[in-house]
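Section 3.1 - Work completed
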Amino acid sequence: MNFTPGTVAELRVVREAPFGYFLSNGTEEVLLHHRDIAEPFDPEEVQTVFLYQDHQGRLAATMTIPEIQLGTYGWAEVAGLKEKLGVFASIGIRKDMLISIDDLPTHRSLWPEKGDRLYITLQLDKHGRLFGKLAGENIVRSMAKKATKEMWNKNVTGHVYRLMKTGSFMITDGGYIGFIHESQRKQEPRLGQKVEGRVIDIKEDGTINVSLLGRAHEEIDRDAERILAYMDSRGGKMPYWDKSMPEEISARFGISKAAFKRALGRLMKNGTVYQEEGWTYRKEGQ
């Protein structure tokens, strides 16, 4: 029986080498390097190992058995990337698995970064080389939980697993599928990025809609802090007020005119600032 990378095998030690042990199934041999041996190790016993290809492309064995194998799925952390190849994800063994550039977003800015997490399996290419493969939509939906109405307005965290023109799909830490419409985010998250949002709808199929935008009062607070920080940098005043042009507001603060007016209105109501002839001033002592 031929060895298959990405699978677990029960093998016996047939000989020792200066750098490890050679294991065999009776017809083929594979090296178990000292660095891949887990303690305790008894050369007389049958060894349960995971088969993979080392950095030189040679078949190797490890006593570390990963959750992610041929035909099984799990979360893998992104360990690095190569521009012309793709990203490398750790499955818990010494060799990271390449996820091809063909499986990644067209825009480089949306590629996973180190520390992001991807839900993947392992596959063999036509040359028998082992690589990582993103889970398809059918796999994700088969392992997902169905959300209940009680989740409405709850905060959720999770990782983005699919990007579309209209928005992003995420898997929450609780195992629910969430959709983030493009209108419910300030910028498009990366594939594999961890995001935090709130549930704004529960669909009949048990999936949820998620917003990455803060609740109204949270957004006002953040916008007000941004306005005050800018004013403080200019000695407590700024050449903007509630009649400033939307383009000016967007260019300076990165928010809409409506959001600017809401935040400014709150600051004026609590007596922090006042307006005069096209300028906004911070009151002394506020």
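Second construct:
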Amino acid sequence: MILPIVAYGDPVLKKKAKAINKDYPKLKELIDNMWETMYNAYGVGLAAPQVGLPIRLFVIDPTPFAEDEDLSKEDRDQLRDLKKVFINAQIESETGDEWAFNEGCLSIPDVREDVFRKPEITISYYDENWVKHQDTFTGLAARVIQHEYDHIEGILFTDKLSSLKKRLIKGKLANISKGKIKIDYRMRFPKQKIAR
């Protein structure tokens, strides 16, 4: 089932998400719905807060980037078949010199900006079968994971922009939160205060 993606301005996107356990209700169904929602919106990652749930769960499938000839062969190989579920993820380390890449977000449509992130991360997490992993990712794979991880920490990519960039996109963000945008996937907008 395709779920509505929560738009910028909804408080759930700014909440630090809570860990879950194996007994979380309908977890498999939720994960399946998140995959369907992400693919329907042509995304490469989706976090539970983006579908209105403040829990530590996100999914990624950056396979489309594996066809980008501008990336190194090592980067493309790592991105191929990297479809993964991350439950209760914890970044253990982020290393290297920060690099910029133009990021966007399904919750913030039509806004893309360069964001600086470290190129290598080590992350511990459970997969959908509750098997614990600790893996290291580099390059674009690390970036996709960092972006989704930020969502479960209550951080949006726009929070990482300079104050000048934030001022320049302020109007666009206000329009998104008011639902004044054209998109081709389901979204849920923050409730507007009714003027009296």
